[in-house]
Write the structure tokens for this entry.
Amino acid sequence: MAKKLNQFKAEQKRNSQKRIASNTYPKELIIVAEGDSWFDYPLKKDIIDYLRQKGYAIENHAKAGDTLDNMVYGSEYKKKGNIVQHTGPISLQTTLQSIKKLKPRFVLFSAGGNDIVGSDILGYLNHRNSKPDSLINKVIFQAKLKRMSKAISFFIEAVHKTRKSCDIIMDGYDYAKVNGKGYTFIFKNLVGPWILPSMGKKGITAKKDQEPIIKYFVDEFNGMLATLDQKYDYFHFIDLRSKFPKENEWDNEIHLKNKGYKKVSEMYHAKMKNILNQDPLIAFSDRLIAVE
């Protein structure tokens, strides 16, 4: 199974590179992507894999586990003695260089999940034993959300400045599952879980308390993206909330199973069709470089 998955992912990447290298592929089918594990799910199929399978040519800069902060501002640094030097927004520069070179019709962006449910999540939670008015530290979370909105706006404007005739599409995830499942492969846990341990550290052990917390985080994040959708004509938000309500649709706490990512890829395709007022895969079917 592992071999077949690797072959599938490698084949989609090869075909995508062939399309890009042709120099004649329709711009409506060329995409530059930046993001996290929803666009780069190691050893498993993800949204980008399925879009490539359809016929899109995608240069993908996504990296599993990446943060919004790193994608936009950069988080790498060099240290010499007691002096540190920030290396700059390397990821953003790489993405913009691809946009400048390939002149894509669409840029897909998946970011923010690791910024919310990563190590920072502890800061958004109040300890149950402190008898708080709310288990969520809303002041800290809202301050974080404001910084995230600023970072996404920075990304949107940088992309638009680089290529005006380009639309940016981003989803806001669905409600994560607080089930203590991490990312496993061949029965071995490789990373995670991300949420349940943090809840446990704060004494938040009941499902009736955990689920409203996740709902608040995801709703607020999606609300922020919806606001940006209204602000920028060239930014488009896909709402995935409640699209995957069943626990068995999730691979672990924060990742969908293959079928889920295939469904999300269909929603990205539908959004692109809506923006173009036509199905580009049909309109340019005579110029598609088919999957081998």
User: Anything to note?
Assistant: The mean pLDDT is 94. The chain has one domain: 2-287.
